[in-house]
């Protein structure tokens, strides 16, 4: 059975937000984050609640990524870099944390494609003020 495109609630803004989040993680770190911030500033008062929600959640996850992966990795490196086991522990931490954020991004992209909201670790979407 073919699905009618009019029956599906899909937002291009949600798809762009989740795609930029994954590009930030996997392809162009920093550059995609700047693009994500620019799109957020431009569309933060949009009427598209699904797109605004995914945009907000992508920025929240990017902030947590910076804190946990970069900050945690550097902190762990400074604490245990004297030992070979410490270096291995730091690499394992970075790989596990990065993979976790990539999996959250894939889940968010799947939710954006299906037209659903995405709330990982958050109370919900920001209101349109």
TrEMBL record:
Q: Which residues cross the membrane?
A: 21-41, 61-79, 91-113
Question: So which domain of life are we looking at?
Answer: Bacteria
Q: What is this protein called?
A: DUF4870 domain-containing protein
| Keywords, comma-separated and alphabetical | Membrane, Transmembrane, Transmembrane helix
